[in-house]
Amino acid sequence: MNSSLIKFAFFSLGLCLSTSSFADQSFTQELKQGCAKIKKYSQLGKKYYDQQDYAKAIDQFELQASWTHFCILNQDESGSKLTARDMDLANNNVGLSYAKNGQPLWARAWFLRDGTTDTSRFNLKQLPPPAVSSNLEGTYVRPNGFGQWNYLFVTKKAKTYQIDFEGYYFGLRGLIYGPNMGNFTIQMPLSKKQAIYRYQDCKIDLQFNADTKIGQSITVKQSDSDSGCGFGHNVFADGIYQKVETNPSNTDTQKVH
Prior knowledge:
The chain is of the alpha+beta class and 257 residues long. It contains 8 helices and 8 strands. It has an 8-stranded antiparallel sheet with strand order 4-3-2-1-8-7-6-5, covered by helices on one side. Helix 3 packs antiparallel against helix 5 (84-100) and helix 5 runs antiparallel to helix 6 (104-111). The longest helix has 34 residues, at 3-36. The model is unreliable at 1-13 (pLDDT under 50). Residues 1-23 form the signal peptide. Keywords: Signal.
């Protein structure tokens, strides 16, 4: 082999290792900076909560919840001493703020993220029973990683419901590097409560339901176990989506913390 090619090969390898090392250092720095802000998010959330400015409290407590989960899962690099108890308290802070803000459905969704803990069970009992409507319009969510959600937006369009799916996959570093994403749109007659999305060999069944525990919901079953369906890597639609708003939110307003 030409000696100049040998030198170039080692130079390229060194560059890759250097770039990888720099990326790791950059991630660790951003991670520690983010984890260091959790206490501030909690304090600001409490300040706004005490001032009865619940919308601002929600913003801060959601950041607290997202970063608490993220820092726990990246504990080796973050050096964080946070525990599952901190995660439970953060989620319930968000839920309580939504309840005070007159949004009991969103509150229920947050309490159910830790639905087996004493705190969450107690708070769930304080909420009014979820109302059930014949109108299927609204925003439905399923818990995702780091205090995030997958979304189904249901809107009336002439004689049909339009159903928009917006899903994410957060890798271990996803809160900093961003998630993989997937979406689809289908139509369903107003008289129906079941819809099917098809993409190549992928099939996704959506069944609208209602019960006294979580209110209105959509059960989604995705047939393709390899996460195809035209979504980003590891994005799945599977799960139970709870209705959290009567009117569908603008998808542009959804945020990743």
